[in-house]
Amino acid sequence: MNTELDNYSHKRFNILTGEWILVSPHRAKRPWQGQNETVNNEKRPSYDENCYLCPGNTRINGEINPDYKDVYIFTNDFASLQSDSPDFEVNDGLLMAKSEKGICKVICFSPDHSKSLADMEPIDIKKVVNAWQKEYKELGANELINYVQIFENKGAVMGCSNPHPHGQIWSQSTLPNEVVKKNTQQLNYYKKNGTSILGDYLTQELDKKERIIFENDAFVVLVPFWAVWPFEAMIVPKTHQINILELNDTEAFLYAEAISKLTKAYDKIFNTSFPYSSGIHQAPTNGEDNNHWHWHMSFYPPLLRSATVKKFMVGYEMFGSPQRDITAEKAAKMIRDLV
User: Fold this and answer.
1) Which domains can be identified in the chain, with CATH numbers?
2) Which residues of 93-125 are buried (b: 16+ CB within 10 A; e: fewer)?
3) Catalytic residue among 113, 164, 166, 292
4) How far is 293 from 268, CA to CA, in rounded Å?
5) CA-CA distance, 331 to 36, in Å (whole number)?
6) Active site annotation includes 166
7) How far is CA 39 from CA 7, 119, 156, 160, 308, in A?
8) Triad 334, 302, 332: Cα angle to 5°
9) Of 313, 334, 299, 318, which Cα lies nearest the Cα of 150?
10) Cα–Cα distance between 125 and 112 in angstroms, integer?
11) How far is CA 98 from CA 110, 139, 179, in A?
12) Is 16 exposed, middle or buried (0-12, 13-18, 19+ CB in 10 A)?
C-alpha cells in the first residue's frame, strides 16, 4: 500500500454507494478532551425477570414468551412499519409523501440473557443464520414486501433498549435509501463487466491481504478499503451469491464461524462488550432479476480510542462527507491480531 495513505489526508471511494470518505490518519495523534461514554461490564444473569425478551416473561402487550431454548421470533410490539397502513400519496408542489407498508419482527438469538453473539458458539449462531434464512424467504414471498432488512443494534451506546441478545427484521414495500445506492452501483458494474463488483473487489483484497481479518473456505472478513467507522468490518461470501438463501448447510455454519470470530475479536479490542450496528444487505425480494447483487454483512462499531471514547458523526460529517482518523489497514491489523 502506498505509504502516503498512512500519513496524509486523502479521499477513498466506496464502490458500493458511489460516495467518497475523507481519511485523516494524522489526526489520530490529537489529544482527546471530549465526551467519554460510561462502560458497564457488569455480568448479567442468564435470566432476568424484568426482561421482556426472556423466556416465560410477559411483554408489554400482555403476550407471554414461550419457554424457548434457542431462537425465538415474534412480530415487533412497537413496529415502525404497519402492514395495514392505507394507500395514500401527497403531491403538493414540493411537499411529497407516500404511504409505506411493512412487517417488523424481533429475533432473540438465545434464551440466555447474559450472552451476546460473541459469547455464543458457531453451532448456536448457525441457528440464528437459519432463522434469518427462513424469515427472508417467508417475508420476501409476501407480495407486500420488496425488501427485507436484517440488522442488530448491540449496546446502549447504539440505542439498544434491551441487553438481551436480539436483532430485528424490518421488511417493507420499497427499497430504503442505502439499498437503492448499492443496487444502482452493483447493477451498473454488472451490466458493464458481467461480474459481481464485490466478487472482483474480493479477488483484489485477497491478493493484497492488507485489510483481511479472517477467512475460511466460504467467507472473508475484512475492513473495507472505504470503511467509515473506526473498526468497521464486512463479511463477504467468496462465491457470487445474491442472498442468504443460497447458503448450503456447510456454508451457513462457516458464516456463523465468521460472525463468531469477528465479534469475539471485537470484545478483545478494548476488553469490553463491543457495541455495534450490523446489517445484511442482499437482493431485494421484488421478483426482478437481481443477479447483480452480491450479499454481504456490515458491522459499524462506534468506539474510537477506548471503551469510553466513541466516534461522533458531527460537523463536517453532517454537512460534508464521512471522515475517519485511523486507516482501514491499521484497524484491520488490530482486529486480525486478536482473532
Assistant:
1) 9-336 (3.30.428.10)
2) eeeeeeeebbbbbbbbbbbbbebbbbbbebebb
3) 166
4) 33
5) 21
6) yes
7) 32, 18, 9, 14, 6
8) 20
9) 299
10) 13
11) 37, 22, 18
12) buried
Q: What is the 3-state secondary structure (H, E, C) of 7-44?
A: HCCEEEEECCCCEEEEECHHHHHCCCCCCCCCCCCCCC
The residues, ordered by sequence, that sit 6+ positions from 102 with a Cβ below 8 Å of its Cβ are 79, 80, 81, 82, 83, 144, 145, 170, 171, 172, 173
**Can you say whether the dihedral through the CA atoms of 324, 327, 330, 335 is positive or negative?**
positive
Q: Tens digit of pLDDT for each residue in 147-198?
A: 999 999 998 888 787 999 999 999 999 999 999 999 999 999 999 999 999 9
Query: Can you tell me the distance from the alpha carbon of 302 to that of 230, in angstroms, rounded to the nearest whole number?
Result: 7
The CA distance from 177 to 52, in Å, is 32
Q: Whole-number mean pLDDT of the chain?
A: 93
pLDDT in tens, 49-69: 999 999 999 998 999 999 999
Cell of 314: 458531527
> And the C-alpha cell for 290?
437481481
- Cell numbers of 111, please? 434464551
